[in-house]
Amino acid sequence: MNSISRTPWQIQRDVMHALLVREMKTRFGKWRLGYAWVLLEPAMHMLVLVAVFSFLGREFYPGIPTALFMLGGIAPFLFFGQCFTKSLAAVASNRGLFSYRQLRPFDAVVTRVLLEFCIYLFSLVALLGILAWFGVAATFNDFLLLVAVNILFLGFCLGLSLALCVFGERFPEAAKFGPMIQRPLYFMSGVFFSLEHIPEEYHPYLSWNPLLHVIELTREGLFASYHGMFADMQYLVMSSVGMLAFGLLVYRANWRDLVRSQ
Questions:
Q1: φ, ψ for residue 64 (rounded to 5)?
Q2: Residues 6+ positions from 88 with CB-CB distance below 8 Å
Q3: How far apart are CA 78 and CA 176, in angstroms?
Q4: Cα–Cα distance between 152 and 158 in angstroms, integer?
Q5: What is the value of pTM for the model shown?
Q6: What DSSP letter does each residue of the chain carry, written as one string?
Q7: What is the domain partition of the chain in residue ranges?
Q8: What is the pLDDT of residues 214-244, one digit of tens each?
Q9: Measured in whole angstroms, how far is the alpha carbon of residue 223 from the centre of its chain?
Q10: Measured between alpha carbons, how far is residue 157 from residues 26, 72, 91, 238, 251 in Å?
Q11: In this predicted model, what pLDDT tens digit does every residue of 36-70 receive, in sequence order?
């Protein structure tokens, strides 16, 4: 009997693996192009913005091709947007699984966030490589900065997702407000502009947004010629730790109700 017993870590690993496979089938199985959407979605966003601003005859940053500049903003924002949208429905879409004692809403949320994080990193690296193959490249800057920013970004999105999974279950109407919140954030988060190009009197209104600091610091890590002088790493650390703590506390206070609500 002892030979087939499993440790709690092994059980958790198997649960996460099963959820990950299920999420991948759900995420890509219904689309005709399947896993190609990992690259097609950010590529289409990038190409549309490049076409628009090329038509206007604008070059955003010296030494950085417009496609790379846009990609440095689009990829992080799409990761945030997917976490935001999917976490609101995380409990409802996995409700039938919570009858299993080993599985909790926390597992479903963490699996979704980790899957989207892996998709984000893969799409960013793959598209940078594809663009470089076509001769669209810029001098790389700081790998350790990229690692630090993305770890903090992952913590921020995980905390936000845990809080939103509770709000989405308690207030089902919240899902309808998701797009209404994301649309203005798309225009306020530096996806297609640099904070350097915005008059300084507007910086206090924009700098409260952690996404703006993520994108500015991501571009600084990616491109040697980019200087995110207005990005604040300390603010990003505080925002990420604070959001993760908030999400864990909200989930901890409500997880039993989430399970019983089925």
A1: -125, 115
A2: 164, 165, 167, 168, 174, 175, 178
A3: 18
A4: 10
A5: 0.89
A6: -GGG---HHHHHHHHHHHHHHHHHHHHHTTSTTGGGHHHHHHHHHHHHHHHHHHHTT---BTTB-HHHHHHHHHHHHHHHHHHHHHHHTHHHHTGGGGGSTT--HHHHHHHHHHHHHHHHHHHHHHHHHHHHHTT-------HHHHHHHHHHHHHHHHHHHHHHHHHHHH-TTHHHHHHHHHHHHHHHTTSS--GGGS-GGGHHHHTT-HHHHHHHHHHHHH-TT---TT--HHHHHHHHHHHHHHHHHHHHHHHHHHHHT-
A7: 2-260
A8: 999 999 999 988 987 788 899 999 999 999 9
A9: 20
A10: 21, 18, 17, 14, 14
A11: 778 888 899 898 888 887 776 666 677 889 899 99
Residue 1 has which token pair? 């009997």
Structure tokens at 14: 């198997």
